[in-house]
Amino acid sequence: MSGHSTYEPKSGFERWLDVRLPIVRLMNDTIVTFPTPKNLNYWFTFGGILALVLGLQIVTGIVLAMHYVPNADMAFASVERIMRDVNYGWLIRYMHSNGASMFFLAVYLHMFRGLYYGSYKAPREVLWILGCTIYLVMIITAFMGYVLPWGQMSFHGAVVITNLVGSLPIVGGPITTWLWGGFAVDNATLNRFFSLHYLLPFVIAGLVILHIWALHVTGNNNPTGVNVKSENDTVPFHPYYTVKDGFAIGVFLLLYMSFVFYNPNALGDPVNYVPANPLVTPAHIVPEWYLLPFYAILRAVPDKLGGVILMFGAIAVLFLLPWLDTSKVRSMRYRPTARLYFFIFVFVSLVLGYCGGQLPDGQVIPGLSGLVLLDADINSFVWLSRVATLYYFAYFLIILPMLGLTETPLPVPESISDPVLSHPASTPVGAMAAPEKRG
Amino acid sequence: MLRKSIALAALGLALISGPALAAGEPKEPRSVAWTFAGPFGKFDAAQVQRGYKVYREVCAACHSMDLMFFRNLGQKHGPFYDPKYPNPNDNPYVKSLAKDIQVNDIDSETGDTIQRAALPADKFPLPFPNEAAARASNGGAAPPDLSVITKSREGGPDYIYSLLTGYVNAPAGLTVGPGQYYNPYMPGDLKSYWTGKGEAPKGGFIAMAPPLAVDKVTFDDGTKSTVDQQARDVVAFLAWASEPKQTERKQFGLGAMIYLFIFTLLLWFSYKRVWRNIAH
Fold first, then answer.
1. Residue A144's domain is classified under what CATH number?
2. Under an 8 A CB cutoff, do A273 and B144 touch?
């Protein structure tokens, strides 16, 4: 895929096949000889981890679909029956439900790495946009999957989220009815969500192939953000990164499986083990942890349509990031000011996640009653969410565009091998042969 | 940098995992040292057997367990499991437990609704024919199904235990409606029922009268039948019923984790060896 190929067909059959369908050559160029920067750290292992988790989700999901009944009266019991009567059904189901959480954990770390090392910058814009598309489809898939057990949170979560569409002027109502397949979230909704939940993972798999294709055209970014200059800067993907990714996958699986075997319900809401009842609304409707930041943004806005726009805007802004960040320096290793604002951004995203799990009018500092501003006490999670939402958007729309023009980055190494041979931490600043580079 | 980031991420996860609490927080459940807690925990068969008796003689009058079959009692890691009968439907003890219970059936000759003694393959029968009937007989509150009760409540087994043993007289100043009982562990909001001084008491109203009493159930193994004992035993039974594959899961998990650990260790050494000549 990356242009030059060093593949030599070894057997007669391979030579025969190579001139007809060079699939062995493709695989060889992609996962064996692919030149990869030699300075990739563990933050760069999450791509491999994500590929594995996607595979596991698809395999466990296909087996679950063999036993699951997509019917409003039977769905809940069928999921429990999988865990009670299907051989190793408990393992398959808990791997799938915890796998969703692990998928998001890994994707957030993968995005964190991309944001920190500037992996979205030219020439990797398409690679980044494909990644954002995968993330968006993942959210939709996870949401639909969460509806399938038809517990209380499944049902009422589906009601809340599908009703968001209803906030659109004029077309909102008809579209909501069309999505539901009726006039309320019911059996028809469950059926179509099941169908789409089965379809979308294959869409994700297709997007992942494009994502890897785009990656192999531009080559990997690396912690220095400096382009590969010579063969000295790279090692072949196999065995160097197969073994490093393999080790990271092992560590990740240890974490994943500790949830599956010892704490399978820790990441879920207990209320979802109560069968769906349209007449009883749970005291506190919350999405799964991985969507809480967006839920906080949604609730931060007093107007429903405004909340929906900001919530989707929080994802949409990611697509524009390659053009919002004006700095030419990729890695934040050499952008101390940007790094500070970035860590605040990460912290703010976690704060949003925390706010999403709390009641909006709950007190941030218990017992302290402050000033009522607009519609709520200043000491409330809704106000904390508002401040955090403001920073979230300001980071992308103001801070990053401005910083690239105003900040003074640290000297960037000449090549990947440079800091490898003399790590900046152990070298005097003047020793680095790099001129001042400004964005 | 890496270490700092990990610490930040860990802090974030710790914040996220904080439980979401509804208004009018109930009392924190008392924690019990369950035999089935932790990665090596197992159910105490004798305790789960006693718990089944409590369920059968007390709870089953009002609470269904729609996901449970009598055969479950005799399956591996179940309370009446006997290695001589790998198929629980053959287990004579389970058969005799089932036989004590009448279930509805259809006479295949006449089509009439009949009652017959249950078989291990039968579900636990429902105490009420439908939800409306359950409500009508219980002052408007349908008793919840207990099949997955310990995993469907915040606090799990500790919460159910605390609720069962936590009934106290309502403090003066709290207006308790007819057919309602005050329980400090029950989630709810008592502000509008409170006329006493200070803040409204923690907890809420529950429509279930205190279900357990001293010697209400006679334990076959001679265990003293206190309210606390009955509550512990029935919660152990309910926890087993909520996750009947829990012991299998933990045992399987131990092997899987050891395998994964060794596999990861080998990959670490392979990584060190493969990369030994590369400066990076």
1. 1.20.810.10
2. no
The whole-model pTM stands at 0.91
Which residue numbers in chain A have pLDDT < 50? 1-2, 426-439
Contact A261 B39 (CB under 8 A): yes
Q: Write the pLDDT tens digit of every residue in B45-94.
A: 999 999 999 999 999 999 999 999 999 999 999 999 999 999 999 999 99
Q: What is the per-residue pLDDT across A135-194, written as a single tens digit (0 to 9) for each?
A: 999 999 999 999 999 999 999 999 999 999 999 999 999 999 999 999 999 999 999 999
Residues A101 and A232 placed together within one structural domain of the fold = yes
What range defines the domain where residue A61 resides? 28-281
Chain B residue with CA closest to A244: the answer is B271
Is residue A78 domain-resident? yes
Select from A110, A135, A105 the least CA-distant residue to A221. Answer: A110
Q: Does B250 touch chain A (CB under 8 A)?
A: yes
The 10s digit of each residue's pLDDT in A5-48 is 889 898 999 999 999 999 999 999 999 999 999 999 999 999 99
Nearest CA in chain B to A242: B271
How far is A346 from A342, CA to CA, in rounded Å? Answer: 6
Choosing from A281, A305, A327, the residue where a domain stops is: A281
With respect to residue A45, please indicate whether it lies within any of the assigned structural domains. yes
If one counts the domains in chain A, the total is: 2
**What is d(CA B176, CA B183) in angstroms, rounded to the nearest whole number?**
11
Angle at A397 between CA A395 and CA A403, to 5 degrees: 65
Total number of residues shown for chain A: 439
Identity of the residue in A261, A272, A273 whose CB atom sits nearest the CB atom of B257: A261
ipTM: 0.89
Cα–Cα distance, A163 to A180 (Å, whole number): 10
